[in-house]
Amino acid sequence: MPHPNDPALRSFIPVDSESDFPIQNLPYGVFSAHGLAPRIGVAIGDYVLDLWELEQDGRLQVEPGTFSAPALNGFMSQGPQVWARTRARLSELLRHDHGELRDSEELRKRAVVPMREAKLHMPFHVAGFTDFYSSKEHATNVGAMFRGKDNALQPNWLHMPIGYNGRASTVVVSGTRVRRPRGQLKPPGAENPSFGPSKRLDFELEMGAVIGQASPIGGMLTEAQAQAMIFGFVLVNDWSARDIQQWEYVPLGPFQGKAFATSISPWVVTSAALEPFRCEGPAQTPPPLSYLQQAAPNNYDIELEVGLRAASMNKPARICRSNFKYMYWSSVQQLMHHASSGCAMNVGDLLGSGTISGPEKGQRGSLLEISWNGTEPLALADGVARTFLEDGDSLTMRGWCQGDGYRVGFGEVEGTILPAES
Ligand code: CA
Question: Quick check: is 138 catalytic?
Fold first, then answer.
């Protein structure tokens, strides 16, 4: 049987070469259509393959009811062997030269749903959300802004992936509108803080690793164990209120400035589908302590772009083009570090990579950096300029791996800003 990542594979379902969802991808999500309850599906071209229909038809070997769930957690908890077996089977069922689904009109009618008729939901129940700070370029830019060029990186930064425990309760799926947060603000020059809507609302371009296996309290993880626990990845927009954040974060760290919303893309692209796009990350100097060392190339070559559309514009302006491969600390290292204290990991944990900025100016992954803390407004189109996000602005992130004649893509994560509640 051909390998599911074989670039030569094609499906009997027509897929454009620019589509994010060829047969080599097969990302998992949760959808509902035609008045039926949300269930698990896989994206293929402009369609969703209904895995609950296939399971009921006896065509997938999983624990009973796996794909009728409105979240991927139960499937993920069955482990890497089940993930691999299911991926191979779905690839077979969708192949152009395999007749089982292709030639059964009755089954196709039930199991192949046009994506435009489907509503996409949160793909998994987020057990915990951890947000890292692992792009050296981002940390250097932000550090230079607030501490000066010579003290940009804190002394610990090159020795461990810095992160904090965020809020799982406010992780939302693409398309969910985001209410401008309120908080304590103390602009430069103000004598006392006041309470009100954030005036410095920002996005952060990130990827999120979706943890598909648990680890016990007190356990440490090897590189291979950490790798095997990562089910896949989503796009993440980690919305941030810079003015709330700046006033509150000393001495402890991010709290309300980061707690109000984090948006993710609806399709989880599996680690298995990303395997051909694995690449080396930046050289790590000094070498990390032994528990953080990795022998494999654990970064991925994923093209990323961000578009911003003000309410008055009819199409988005591209404001950032970056790549996941620039990350200094890999998701595997983040996970090894996370567990190293004895912290248990759960099925459904989401690890935000941290803002993904690259070395070039056009690769900055937040407005904080693009507008250099509000001092360099960004011209969008038709006289529209931005330092931070305004009400009505729509922010869209996309990501994809470019293969030879196909791409393994993530779709998009979009969010539109609503005014603060009065
Ligand atoms: Ca973040």
Answer: yes
Same domain, 111 and 157: no
**Residues 218 and 367 grouped into a single domain:** yes
3, 96, 98, 138: which is the annotated catalytic residue?
138
pLDDT digits 0-9 by tens, 89-132? 999 999 999 999 999 999 999 999 999 999 999 999 999 999 99
CA distance 324 to 205: 10
Do residues 102 and 175 share a domain?
A: no
Q: Which domain holds residue 116?
A: 28-121
For 328-379, what is each residue's pLDDT tens digit? 999 999 999 999 999 999 999 999 999 999 999 999 999 999 999 999 999 9
Residue pointed to by tokens 């590189």: 223
Compute the distance from residue 124 Cα to the ligand 1 centre, in Å.
20
Between the CA of 130 and the centroid of ligand 1 the distance, in Å, is 9
Q: Of 104, 121, 138, which residue is a domain's last?
A: 121
Q: Give mean pLDDT, residues 299-309.
A: 98
Q: How far is the CA of 166 from the centre of ligand 1 (A)?
A: 9
Burial of 41 (0-12, 13-18, 19+ CB in 10 A): buried
How are beta strands 39-44 and 47-50 bridged, if at all? antiparallel
Q: Does the pLDDT value for residue 73 go beyond 90?
A: yes
Quick one: 247 and 337 in the same domain?
A: yes
Looking at residue 83, which CATH number applies to its domain? 2.30.30.230
Q: Is residue 8 part of a domain?
A: no
pTM of the model: 0.98
Q: How far is the CA of 237 from the centre of ligand 1 (A)?
A: 8
Please choose, from the candidates 94, 84, 82, the residue with its C-alpha nearest in 3D space to the C-alpha of residue 9.
Answer: 94
For ligand 1, the distance from its centroid to the CA atom of residue 17, given in whole angstroms, is: 32
State in Å: Cα 132 to ligand 1 middle: 6
Beta strand 278-279 with 163-165 is unpaired
Residues 6+ apart with CB under 8 A from 339: 215, 219, 220, 221, 226, 345
Residue 302 lies in a domain: yes
pLDDT band at 273 (very low <50, low <70, confident <90, very high): very high
Cα(389) to ligand 1 centroid in Å equals 16
